[in-house]
Fold these 2 entries.
Entry 1:
Amino acid sequence: MGAKTGLWGGDAFVKILTGNDLASGDVIWWAGDGWSRQVSDAADVGAHGDDLARAEEAALRVVGAYVIDATLGEDGVRPAHIKDRIRAFGPTVRPDLIEQPTEADIGKWVI
Amino acid sequence: MYRYDSYDQAIVDARVEEFRDQTQRRLTGALTEDQFKPLRLMNGLYLQLHAYMLRVAIPYGTLSGKQMRKLGEIAGKYDKGYGHFTTRQNLQYNWIKLADAPDILAELATVEMHAIQTSGNCIRNISSDQYAGVSADEVADPRPWAELLRQWSSFHPEFTYLPRKFKIAVIASDDDRAAMRLHDIGLKLVERDGVVGAEVYAGGGMGRTPMVAPLIRDFIAEDEIISYLEACLRVYNRYGRRDNKYKARIKILVHEIGVEEYKRQVEEEFAHMRELGLNPPVEELARIRAFFAAPAYESGLSDDIDRSNPAFALWVDRQVAAHKAPGYAIVNISLKPIDGIPGDASAEQIGLVADLAEAYSFDELRVTHAQNLVLPHVKKADLYAIWQKLVAAGLAEANLDLITDIIACPGLDYCALANARSIPLAQKIAARFAAAERQAEIGELKLKISGCINACGHHHAGHIGILGVDRRGVENFQLLLGGSGAEDASLGQITGPGFSEDGVVDAIEKVTDIYLAERESGERFLDTYRRIGMKPFKEAIYG
């Protein structure tokens, strides 16, 4: 799907697909061949995100699916907006409840 | 407390089964999300940032021990072990599975609770004074009025699809503990010639266009309140804007056509409504009122409190309020520990407060719009035993109405609408001002934080308010001064350019320093601000 590299090199810009599991409500990420609860598994959906979202919603595997911008770098996939990073991470005030998106400095990863 | 009759129970039970069927059809694909969404919202089930969120109605903030215990059990069984008490006296669960939602509603129904009308463009949960029925200065207990309005507004066929949501508050004291004038309609019970009636305020609210509700009628008798509110809602339902959700609240209508014109139209409609005989029979009012009779207070109790333990004495001075019955007190339980999350309580804490209500408070407790809890009928002789149990449970913070008693919406940590996180900021402010002596020196200071313009954290009504905004993907915080949700209601004014999270904590410290330097004897922060104005504070903040 051809991730684009940033203007100054470094992290590549990608499109990833997220939503909530229909039955559990859990935040999920499209991993290329199915859904994952780890943003680190998210795959670049290129220009096909909206079609995928419609198909997966129709198949009752996801609700509220939407495409977001993200970067792909040494630390893996990182959603561009803080709101989506908090979705990936969990509430920043409840570290006991978080999903672990990366082994890197997690606090810095979110903020 | 009010108890369901067979009609109430049948309605709630039927709704549970209806929603169970709707949920099953959604899970099997018979309903699309577009079809299902309005149905789940009618039952308080949102899809939030991390998961489904269920908002449970707590009518006028009153609970029995059994109801509270059930809320804790649900938190432990279906959620991640905690719940969040909101600024509308409700409770929200953050981690609900769709498949579990019907079972949760069924469990709530066993204790006469539900989540109906906690979302949608309908009349929401009626809110009231957490000291209702126990405050010495109230004209009458506002809860029977609130219950009457609850029954009237539940499934009201004409007002199920209003232009926008509609919030009503009822108080009965000169001290407004319910932010009454910041509701779509506020009622204040008053007495005239020996008859209890209500002053009616309409068109208040917060959100992106905050307004303090003007008085639209100085007296309406109890037996005509339903007709009068029908008239208020009818005018709004007919002329409120439906083309723009940001201009759809009643406050916009009242503002755009003017208070006098709105009053004229309501009076015209009221004259018509009066002829229809829609008011409830006085027997029904008496039936409702009987549920709220005062409990069997013991007589001859001492008002003495042993204050030999300094930490207990500090807690008593801050958290205990005067009760109308000799020998009794009102206990405020803080849900604002310095390192905690405003309004959050664990399943165990919820269970403990249920136990305390049953053992020490005639099986009754209250939820406040400031996200705290209240035991309304406590013998002064029992205060020490209660305090010891609260200390053990991490619920004995002594900070009611102080700078660390912060109202904060869930913010970007939980809310899909938010632009910035409210809770970490509340925690930083609380940590900065944690010293009890410093809080006491500053005195009453109501600090309120919203993570977006929707103002669930009541930032417009904070003596100090904070609004989180998104500045090109980075959290930024605007500071407001001079708001109040109390009887001296006012809207805060923005100081100027916004701050980073750390920057706004520093700014608040500068603001409180100015207050301490400039205050005159007996002045609260708000009083000093109103006397000296914004300028000295701006100079201190922005140099």
Note: The two ends of chain A are 28 Å apart (CA to CA).
Entry 2:
Amino acid sequence: MNNIHVTTTVNGDAVEFLCDPRETLLDVLRDRLTLTGAKEGCGTGDCGACSVLLDGRLVSSCLVLGAEAEGKSIETVEGMANGEVLHPLQRKLIEHAALQCGICSPGILIAAKALLKKNPDPTESEVRFWLAGNLCRCTGYDKIIRAIQDAAAEMRGAA
Amino acid sequence: MQYLTPTSFKDASALAAGAKGTSRFLAGGTDVLVQMRADIFTPDILIDLKHIPGVADITQEADGSWTTGVAVPGAVLREHQALGRDWPGLVEAVDLIGSTQVQGRATMVGNLCNASPAADAVPAMIAAGVEVSIIGPGGTRREKVENIATGPGQTSLAKGELITAVHIPARGTNGGDAYLRFIPRTEMDIAVVGCGINLRLDGNTITEARVALGAVAPTALLVKEAARAIIGTSLDEEALVALSAASIAACNPIDDKRGTIKFRKHIAGVLARRVALEAYARAGGTS
């Protein structure tokens, strides 16, 4: 099988990798670039645990081929904190205890980041619809929604 | 599997036509990659269309009609305000497909070529009178959307043929379209029944109408009898009853886990009425 050489940008860093044409972007991130923040829940685009931004657009990385990343810019949960300083969404998720097992959290964080960039002041209903593709089997969602709205308020104030 | 990135539709067509084994075209990948991951189908060659110039563009032509590229994802379509003003029903139908993440990748053309009877975009496209351009080994042709799917997962596209652009008619004056589907919850599900209607008014009288139903037959249906039931009327109760009856009569559904034949037929009648009222209001009519 011929591997494909791909040059891309991940969290602002230039990255090169070789991948099998069938490998998904999620496989590449986790197994070749050791960025294990994005999780594989379903592998078929239903659960949102593998959410990343591809040229700023929220996508499931299990439904993108590694080869498709050529020349693109990818953002994962690993790029959210600034060194030791957590992103407000990460801090609020902890403050609100909006996670238990944590499998969904990286996807929730990336999806919420994309939402707040598009809509800095979303209603509860807007947050719930935006996150309809991010499944959480622990929290019942309420704390997640509150954490995101709290982070949104802080980010609006700080801006 | 080989992954190929042609930079013209002609090359893409030639690659598929000359393929020794199986081939698939890749735009958004939300069906193709799922089929690969689930070991349902892995092609010998996968032809990514996103390196072809123009595939991500949305363009309004001089006559007011719209041309969209084959790789325009739902999220981009949704963000295009002028297109949404002209064709809210079509844009809302596409927007119903999947999650925010799926919307970031999924395309109208992919929804059409995947040929699910329950595809949300397809009844709205048929109602709007959308056509597609096709290229193949024999040259180019233009086809109505209702002539693409021939059965579940089957299309009229021959080996080496692929869609190169989507043509949405000019909205024109006093027109409106709408699409609704029934699902047992509010998000993230597959249509049990879908209905798209597009109409035009003269005063309060409907002069043109197209009614399309999804998930009630092996392919989405253009129901001319249902359109005839409301053309020439001001969508009064009598017309709505006739519309429902014609819609139900056109259904040829199956029993499955999402709905029974009886339920699907009933819902088709209910949705046709609601969608017609919405399209009528959008066209500026008062009944």
Note: Residues 175-282 of chain B form a domain with the Enolase-like; domain 1 fold (CATH 3.30.390.50).
